[in-house]
Amino acid sequence: MKEAPSHIGIIMDGNGRWAVKRKLPRTAGHKQGITTAKKIIKEAIRLGIPNLTLYVFSTENWKRTEEEVGFLMKLIVFHMRSEASFYQTNDIKVRHAGDIHGLPEEVRKEIEKSIENTRNNKAITVTLAINYGGRDEIIRSVNRWIAADKPGSGSFSEEAMRKYLDNSDIPDPDLIIRTAGEQRMSNFLLWESAYSEYYFTDTLWPDFSAEDLSKAIDSYRGRERKYGGVK
Question: Which residues pair with 175 in a beta bridge?
């Protein structure tokens, strides 16, 4: 049987709908979404998945109401502080993807603190995509290349692009899961997902379970990846 993916990306969609279905405020869905994320991280560790990227907050999410955005920023800060022991106990290395300098200072500092405190952990690398957009990452990568005075050394290349991505040492995602029935990329890991396998499920993110993760991985294992060639 094909090996499990070495990197899974998850577009965690459906928190708001989950709350609305239960006649709860949307904020309740976001809280439950964090509980689900913790369960899925632990299951990924159990299954031996070395890399997991979670789409937490996109560059487009700033368009939401000021109340919801403010709540999400506070929730991220609270999570980083209150779950420090969760990351250490489960040997989780935290990474970040996105424009960290575009985040409120308190949020940025808590993310940076979590990254530093978990830098030697080894069970799994969990990349939190916060203030992340695939197009934005590509633009920032090119600007990093320009800032390093590379234009004078020759034409831009795929290798140069890879070097200046947010997390150049993490392999491209083998599998990207999207919950809540939507079937689009939503600006997630545009460069890195060129040959990723996609798995879509109607399950809302707060209801996503360890069994759902296993189903997605089983679907991935049953596919033949040709990367544009013929086998």
Answer: 8, 197
